[in-house]
Design a protein that fits this description.
The protein has about 325 residues and is α+β, with helices and mostly antiparallel strands. It folds into two domains: about 180 residues, no CATH class; about 120 residues, 2-Layer Sandwich (60s Ribosomal Protein L30, Chain: A). The chain contains nine helices and four strands. It has a four-stranded mixed β-sheet. The longest helix is centred in the first third of the chain and has 22 residues.
Length: about 325
């Protein structure tokens, strides 16, 4: 059986920004129809003119779009040598379109895949490594490789899920190589950046049993589907151990005023608290703080729409 992974030849050149032969690939652009376009695709067709993101983050999103589009095409064209994977082809086409529209695009959650317990642990570790790359500024300082790491992680997990061993190994190697490059240069930490004095009264000492992230759309406090999964995991862990304290720390990106974002982060904290209480957590077990834009997980300039800063961190202590 012939198996071809997407990180070869012209595909790799696309992800690394290298020139390819004219016409070698034709990618969807916002508004363009395609075989795998979702019926609700038009929602994500237009890149907002309000987005004023740093050049590195835009480069990351562009590379993410290209990588997911290549992957989607290869799955749809049955280049892995197995069954025609229409569902995953559509999934990654949808991710490509979201990246093109500056919408949140998350790597695959291991619990959503048919994995052995050992493989699930392996991918949770890889996911933590990927998240650390984001938190240390990888999308700004080395965007092409950060995007390559995310797409190759998804390729790897799909390969394991589908039983495509050779393809999975190639994608794993691509992930490892991309993350090695990211970790060599993306070394920022929260302590490298000054914060508003109001936030300095907040204890940032760690020691959590587990940490979770609940993400939000721009200027919203509604919990997304990915966040609902996280809430479910939090409830399972917290209800299993009544001695645990649940700490919620809500953030925003840097678009808007300090006062507006402070209020927005308070609404996000309250949304998470409400979901936890509705799930059976006693209110007196929950402590929360809203820090607005003053403690970004991904440091950015002012006025930058950063999806990974629109988040509530939930620590079990």
């Amino acid at each position: 059986m012939t198996i071809r992974a997407f990180f070869t030849g012209a595909s790799l050149a696309v992800l690394l920004g290298l020139p390819t032969a004219a016409g070698a690939f034709v990618f969807n652009t916002p508004g363009e129809k395609s075989l795998f376009q979702p019926p609700f695709g038009s929602v994500f067709d237009t890149r907002s003119g309000l987005d004023e993101q740093a050049a590195g983050v835009v480069a990351f999103e562009d590379a993410l779009h290209d990588g997911y589009k290549v992957f989607s095409d290869e799955l749809g064209e049955n280049l892995w040598g197995g069954d025609w994977d229409m569902l995953d082809a559509e999934l990654f086409n949808h991710k490509a379109r979201r990246a093109a529209a500056n919408s949140a695009v998350f790597p695959e959650n291991p619990i959503d895949r048919d994995l052995s317990a050992e493989d699930e642990i392996m991918f949770l570790g890889a996911l933590r490594r990927l998240r650390q790359g984001f938190e240390r500024g990888g999308r700004s300082v080395i965007p092409a490789q950060m995007a390559r790491a995310q797409v190759s992680y998804d390729c790897w997990i799909v390969g394991v899920d589908d039983g495509s061993t050779d393809a999975a190994e190639i994608c794993k190697a691509e992930f490892e190589d991309a993350m090695d490059q990211v970790e060599a240069v993306a070394t920022a930490s929260l302590t490298d950046f000054p914060y508003d004095t109001r936030a300095m009264t907040v204890s940032v000492a760690r020691g959590a049993v587990d940490s979770y992230f609940v993400y939000f759309d721009f200027d919203k406090s509604d919990i997304l589907t990915e966040g609902s999964r996280a809430i479910g995991e939090i409830l399972t862990a917290a209800l299993a151990d009544p001695e645990l304290t649940v700490r919620v720390t809500a953030h925003t990106d840097t678009v808007g005023t300090l006062d507006y974002n402070q209020a927005l982060s308070e609404r996000r904290a309250n949304a998470v608290i409400g979901a936890l209480v509705a799930g059976g957590i006693e209110p007196d077990r929950i402590v929360s703080v809203a820090v607005g834009q003053t403690q970004p997980l991904v440091p950015t300039a002012d006025g930058v729409r950063e999806q990974f800063n629109r988040v509530a961190e939930v620590d079990l202590l």
